[in-house]
Every structure is written in structure tokens, then in C-alpha cells.
TrEMBL record:
InterPro entries (alphabetical): AAA+_ATPase, ABC_SmlMolc_Importer, ABC_transporter-like_ATP-bd, ABC_transporter-like_CS, Mo/tungstate-bd_C_term_dom, P-loop_NTPase, Transp-assoc_OB_typ2
Membrane-crossing residue ranges in chain numbering: none
Protein name as it appears in the record: ABC transporter ATP-binding protein
GO cellular component: ATP-binding cassette (ABC) transporter complex
GO molecular function terms listed in the Swiss-Prot or TrEMBL record: ABC-type transporter activity; ATP binding; ATP hydrolysis activity
UniProt KW keywords: ATP-binding, Cell membrane, Membrane, Nucleotide-binding, Transport
All copies of domain ABC transporter, residue ranges: 4-240
The keyword RNA-binding appears for this protein: no
């Protein structure tokens, strides 16, 4: 069993605001969870506390039912005694060693009594690097070095694997390939994984659940679909790609939708409500939606938005339109070069693709 339980963990550097503030998080046995957020939000500090590289100021961490850190008395199991595997952003490979020596090094340090060469071959095969054992690390590409770092972390068959932005130094095509490889490897080994990233696509494609962090605090925890389709706050919505936010007053709340009247608009907007984001009639709210949710549809009066095009940007297979609508600035994406000559548009917002949230960005 390799469940990770973090209870009310705080981690401070000096006298300023905590890097991690009263975090509660449970990672299930064999689960792949992503810590997602902007730089400085506390995700890497959380990972380092799990690894034993940082000491929590308060709170507790347990791995596999065993307490490994207690901030109340500054007690912690050393990092090398936790039996974890870790992949760093910089790969942290020894350039003077061969590939096989890099993978074998942590096994030798831990005094493994198993057949180390066999473990090395098995780990390299798992990441698709068979036959590379005698190669110099300096002769490898960035993607190959990343896979060697992953093989080194997996060689000891850890129950928990920690990954700190391991794909950030790769080009876009190689990142896509390595995302597929990481999913394949996780399906094979079923190791509990905690993955730090600021890339929303990485988090969505790799993880079973996503923990969104901001300023040291957990903002939302859920499946990728829950995070991307039903964000709990306007900040989370903006971070995961919602780019239109229309403020207004809630005039009606039904079972799973609400009606919001933006000031100065001739009609109200209907959108989905989110269970974790309570909205009430008479209170202020914001209707959040993506630029792809606006469609040209002059026939439908419900959720109709009349707008003027103020700017166009060609994006290859799409054109991004900047719009002025009753004093609000909106963004819409349309296929190719459609609506090239249009200056005034009547657009339709699909209610199921917009959410009502109780706060502004």
C-alpha cells in the first residue's frame, strides 16, 4: 500500500507568507495526481516535503500508513529512507557516468542485494532504452536523458514516484510523445505518482485527479473533466483556459443553471451552476466561458450576444476575434478565416459550455 496522506501541512521559508498553507491532500494507492498551478504556488515545495527534502513547519505526512514527517516537533524520516523515486526538472544525471551506471547508482547506494545489472536492464527496457546502457549520457538527446532519469527513479521499484516538471525542457513534439510514454509506464507499474506541472494539458492528459494550487493553498481537487468543465472559482477557470468573464447579478437559480443579468445588456445570460460554487439570486456573479463557446447564430434570441469586431488575429486553422459587447471585451475563436469581412456579429453562447461563478477574476 502506498497511499499518501497530507494533513494540514504548512511549510515556511523565513518569516514571510508560507510557501504551502494548511494543505490537506490524500493520494490513493496507485493513483496519478498532478499538482497544477503557476510558478510560486507551492507545488514543488509540496513535492519536496513528500520526498523529505524539505521539513514541514506544521502538519503531518504519512506514506503507506507510516508517518514520515510531523511539523509539530520538526521530526522527519530522511529522504533516502522513504523508498521513493524522484525525477527532477534538470534530470540530475551524472555526465561522467555511462547510462547503466547512472541507473545503477541509487541501487548501489541503498545496498540492494538483488541482481543490479538485471534491475538496470529491466528499468531501461521499461522506458524504451534497451541497448543504451553503455552510451555516455552526454551523447544522448534531451528526450533520451529524460527517459534515463525516469529509469533511474524506477529501478528500485519504488511504491511512490515523484516528478517535478520532468517534460518542461523538451520541445513540443517530444513532450507529446513523453506524455504518452508516462501514461503507458504508469499503467504497467501502477506506482503512486505525484506530478508537478504548470502545463494544463500535461495535467489533463496524465492524471487521474488534479490538485490546483494558488499562493500555497489548494483551490480545487477533482478529475480533469471536473476541473476543466466545472471550475470552482473564476481564478481556476481563468487558469485552465476560460478567457471570457461577464459580471452581473443573479436573477434566477434553477436545478443546474442560473440566469445572470449583466449591467447594460438587453438580455440575461443562462449558464450552468457548479456544485462547489454556490450562487444565490440577488448576489453578484460572473459568467465564464471559453472563446470556442461562441457561435454565429442570429436565429436564437436566448443567450444572444450582439458584438462589434475590434481586432482579428489569424492563428492558422482559426481566427481569434476581439469583440466589444455592451461595454464588455470578449474573445471568440472561429474556424479558418470565416467572418473575415464582418464588423458586427450576432453570437450565441451555448449555456452548457458556460458556468456561473460567485466571484470576479
Amino acid at each position: 500500500m502506498s497511499e499518501i496522506v497530507i494533513e494540514r501541512m504548512t511549510c515556511r521559508y523565513g518569516a514571510g507568507a508560507p510557501a504551502v498553507d494548511t494543505l490537506d491532500l490524500r493520494v490513493g494507492d496507485g493513483e496519478f495526481i498532478a499538482l497544477l498551478g503557476p510558478s510560486g504556488c507551492g507545488k514543488t515545495t509540496t513535492l519536496r516535503c513528500i520526498a523529505g527534502l524539505e521539513q514541514p513547519s506544521a502538519g503531518r505526512i504519512a506514506i503507506g500508513g507510516q508517518l514520515v514527517a510531523d511539523g509539530s516537533d520538526r521530526w522527519s524520516v530522511p529522504a533516502d529512507k522513504r523508498g521513493l523515486g524522484m525525477v527532477f526538472q534538470s534530470y540530475a544525471l551524472w555526465p561522467h557516468m555511462r547510462v547503466s551506471a547512472n541507473v545503477a547508482y541509487p541501487l548501489k547506494v541503498r545496498g540492494s542485494k538483488d541482481d543490479i545489472p538485471a534491475q538496470v536492464r529491466s528499468a531501461l527496457a521499461l522506458v524504451g532504452m534497451e541497448g543504451f546502457g553503455d552510451r555516455a549520457v552526454s551523447d544522448l538527446s534531451g528526450g533520451q536523458q529524460q527517459r534515463v532519469a525516469l529509469a533511474r527513479a524506477l529501478a528500485s521499484r519504488p511504491h511512490v514516484l515523484l516528478l517535478d516538471e520532468p517534460l518542461s525542457n523538451l520541445d513540443a513534439g517530444l513532450r507529446t510523445y513523453m506524455r504518452r510514454e508516462l501514461r503507458r509506464i504508469h499503467r504497467e507499474v501502477r506506482t503512486t505518482c505525484v506530478y508537478v506541472t504548470h502545463d494544463q494539458l500535461e495535467a489533463a492528459t496524465l492524471s487521474d485527479r488534479i490538485a490546483v494550487m494558488r499562493a500555497g493553498r489548494l483551490q480545487q481537487l477533482g478529475t480533469p473533466r471536473e476541473i476543466f468543465e466545472s471550475p470552482a472559482t473564476a481564478w481556476v477557470a481563468e487558469f485552465v483556459g476560460f478567457d471570457n468573464f461577464v459580471p452581473g447579478a443573479v436573477t434566477q437559480v434553477d436545478n443546474d443553471t442560473a440566469l445572470v443579468q449583466p449591467p447594460g445588456w438587453p438580455t440575461a445570460l443562462r449558464a450552468r451552476t457548479v456544485a462547489s460554487a454556490r450562487v444565490q439570486p440577488g448576489r453578484g456573479a460572473v459568467v465564464a466561458f471559453r472563446s470556442s463557446s461562441l457561435q454565429q447564430s442570429p436565429l436564437d434570441t436566448a443567450n444572444r450576444i450582439d458584438a462589434t469586431v475590434t481586432e482579428r488575429m489569424f492563428l492558422g486553422d482559426q481566427t481569434e476575434l476581439t469583440l466589444a459587447a455592451h461595454g464588455a471585451r470578449l474573445v471568440a475563436k472561429v474556424p479558418g478565416a470565416r467572418l473575415e469581412g464582418e464588423t458586427s456579429l450576432s453570437l450565441w453562447l451555448r449555456p452548457e459550455q458556460a458556468v456561473v461563478l460567485p466571484e470576479a477574476v
